[in-house]
Design a protein that fits this description.
Radius of gyration: 20 Å
Largest sheet: 7 strands, mixed
Number of strands: 16
CATH architecture of the largest domain: Alpha-Beta Complex
Distance between the termini: 29 Å
Shape: globular
Amino acid sequence: MKYKCIVVAKRGPPENLQIVERDLRDPSSREVRVKVLACGVCGPDVQTRYGLSPFAPKPPYDAGSSMVGTVDAVGSAVRHAAPGDHVAAYPAFGGYSEYVYLPESRLIFVPSDLDPVPAAPLVLNYLTAYQVMHRRAKVTTGGKALIVGASGGCGTAFLDLGRLAGLKMYGLASASKSSTLTQFGAIPIDYRKQDFVEVIRDAEPDGLDYIFDGMGGDYLKRAFPLLRRGGVLVEYANPLSFGGILRSLGWVLVLSLLPNGRRVKGYGAGMSLFYRKPFLEDWATLFRLLQEGKIRPVISGQFPLLEAARANALLESGQVVGNLVLVTGDQGRG
């Protein structure tokens, strides 16, 4: 039996995503074979394909940073997973596939009654927003927050979770996407026509409690002075290179040492590869919130897995609000 997966053949545009057919094998003793149902199409997938990541693998490599599916088969030494279990994973690479092989330790268990399509964005985009807010910034009800990059997959996750946390939110987005921000109770700022620094200073003269920055670059330096004393900015943007990591760390260190009572913190979901406990706790919380109807991921489109290149091209266009999801079989089209 064969299965299909998506491979990055070489660096560059979405056309470099190729469909590859492989033999379906039995899992090794400690492996779990998962039948993939849905995959999130995320910014890191695009950045890595262009080599804009300090940890980008050399092509060819299997594409896709996250997935949701069901356990199809288990190895002889697997103890906690069984065929039929609903699971997710953040493998960083290899999620765009009809089947994936994973160590049992990499599995995230998912309630069996969840639709895999809205569940898919929780694996990376919602996890990032949740941990930035609750583990790094430690938000409290009534806090005032600015979301830099508020209309994409992570941005709408911040809006959704910020609404749930009782934050007063401002969000940077183009005017065409402002209606999504207002649906979550946020105040939109058109970054193309408005100076967000002036807008925030006029609206919040005492300063903000939190800034969540997924864009990086000059936004870090421009946004930081908008914090009140005791406020915190969390930088979660991809540094794009090892040089970018050093520059980001330098700015975090310099700004955090200034005697003004404001703080800068960094965040990266890649730590889930090394320190699982808080990540598993937070994934469980997010799946429970989805199950209870307390969060509602924005899904702009879903595409068959084999149309991954088309979905990636749409994401790169900058026109997407919220999330795109790949599904196996022909469960839907964007």
